[in-house]
C-alpha cells in the first residue's frame, strides 16, 4: 500500500478527536488525554508522509474514488508535507502549553471545555488547506480553520476579546467572500476547480481574464496572509486572545495564506507578470510592519507587528519566482512558524511571571527567572536573524537570491530586508533591556509581583506562576527552532527540490491527472525579470 | 453561454447594498451586509452553471450548451451552510456586545489609541539628566553643560505642544491621558 494514501487521515484524525473531546466535554482529564494523543498520532503520520516524499515525488489521493478533475483530490508533495509536519509540531506544543495553563488555572469554566474540540477542528482545517489540490476544497479548509478561529479568538467572551473578534470576523468573512467570488469566476472561465487541471486550462485564457482572476485570488489570500495594505486587521485583533491561541494563530493562520499565495503563483499563474507589484508590496510589508512594531509598548502587539513585517520576507522570496528565492521562502515559512509561535508562548509566560505584557511595567525578569530570559532570548535573536540561527540562514538565502536576480527592485528589497532585520533586533532588544535587564525599581510603574522578594525554587509560588508543562512545551518549541539551524543543510536541500518541483509543475500535474497529461509551456520562463 | 439578466441585476444590487452596509459602524448593519454579500456570491456561482430551466447532463455526448451544470449548485449548498454558521456566530457576538457594553457599534482599540497619542518623548531615554562631574549633587544641566533649571524642551503630542516634563508626567498612572491598558491576563 502506498504510504501517501494515508494523507486523508491528517484531516480525519483531528476531526475524530474533536468529536471525541466534544463527547467527553464533562471529563477534562479524558479530554486532554484524547486530544494530545490524537494530535501526536497526526504528527507521527505526517512525519511518515514527509519521509515518503523526502527525496522528491508527488502523490495524489482521490477522495471517494472520483477521478480528477471531477473529484476532490489531496496532494502530498515536499512543500505541503513539510508545512504539515511543522504546523502539527507547533500545534502539539501549543496544545500541551494550553493544557498546562488550564490545569494551573483550573479549567472548570464552561467555555474552556470547548477549547479542545475547537482547537482540533482548527488543526484539521489547516491540514486540509495544506493538502488540498482543489480550489473549492481549499476554500472549505480555510472556512474550517477560520470558523474555529472565531470561537478561539472570542473564548470567554470578555469585552476586549469581543471587540477584537468583531474586527477579525468581519475582515475574514470579507476575504472569504472575495475568495469565493474568485472561485466562481475561475469556474465560469474554465469549467474546473481542480488545481492541476486549472494549471493547464488557465494558460489557454486570454491575458486580461487571467490577470483579473490572478489579482482576485491574490487579494483574497493577501488579506489572510496579512500582506501590507491588507494587514491592519492583524495587530488589532490578535493580541487580546488568550496566549496559546494568539501563538497558534500567529504561527499558522497567516502561513496558510502564504501557502495559498505560493500555490497560486507557482501552479496556477506561473510567468504572469505580477512579480513587480508583489515585490513592492513585500518591501512595504516589511518596512511598515516593523516601524509599527517599534512604536508599541505591549509585547504581544509588538510581536503581532513583527509577524506582519516578516510576512514580507516570504512574499519577497515568492515574488522572485526563481528556485533560490522560492526555496528560501519555503525555509523561511518553516522557520517563522516555529519562532513566532515560541515567542508568543514565552510572552504568555512573561505575563504570568511579571503580571503584565507591557514593557513599561515589566522589569528585572532576568534575575527573577533566568530560564524565562533564556527562553525569550534565543527565539528573539532567531527572529532578528543573528548569525548562527535559522532566521539568519533564511534571510541570507533570500538576500543571495535577490542579489542573484540583480534588478534594481531586487536590490531595494535586499536593502529593505537587512533594514527590517536590524529594526527587528532593535525592537526585541528594547523588550530585552526593559523587561529583563533593568532593575524592578527603574520601571515606570512596576507590577507588585516584580518587587516582591523572589520565591525560592522549591517554593509553591514559582510552581504556580510557571507550571512545568507550560515551560516544557515552550522549551520544546525553542529547541525545535534551534534544531532548524542544526539541520538547515538537509532542510534547505528539500526546500530547493520542492521549489524546483513547484516551478516545473509537471510532477504536480502528472501526479494528479496521470502521466499522460501534457504540461503547458510557460509564457515566460521563471526568471521573474 | 447565456446568462439570466435579472439574476445579474439582482446580484449587482445585492453587492452594492452589501458593500454599503459593511462600511457602517453598527454591527447589525455589518451583519446584514455580510449576508447580502454571501447571497450575491451564491447568485454569481449559480450563474456559472448555465441557463436556468435546463436539465443536468445525462450523457457524455450531450452538447455543453444544452444542459445545466449541477456542480455550482453543490458549491452553493456548501457556501450557504458556511455563511449560515458565520451569521449565527456574528449574531452571538452582537448579542454579547450588547450585554457587555449596551451598544451596537464597533469600538475602538484602546491600546491602539494610547500608542497613537503617546508622545515620541520617552522619559527614560530622552529626559534631561544631571551631568555628574563630582560626587556632590549638582543642579540640572543640559547635554552641553549649561544650566537647565528651566525645562524648555517641548514635544508635539495629540495636537498640543507640551513641555517635555509634562509629557513625561502624563505617562504616570492617574493622569488624564493614561488609560488602563492592562488586559485580562493570560487566562483562557
UniProtKB/TrEMBL annotation, chain A:
GO terms for molecular function: NADH dehydrogenase (ubiquinone) activity. The keyword Transmembrane applies. The chain crosses the membrane at residues 6-25, 37-59, 79-98, 110-130, 136-153, 165-187, 212-234, 241-262, 274-295, 302-323, 371-389, 409-429, 474-495. It is found in: Cell membrane; Membrane. Its main location: membrane. GO terms for biological process: ATP synthesis coupled electron transport. This is Na(+)/H(+) antiporter subunit D. The lineage of its organism: Bacteria, Bacillati, Actinomycetota, Actinomycetes, Micrococcales.
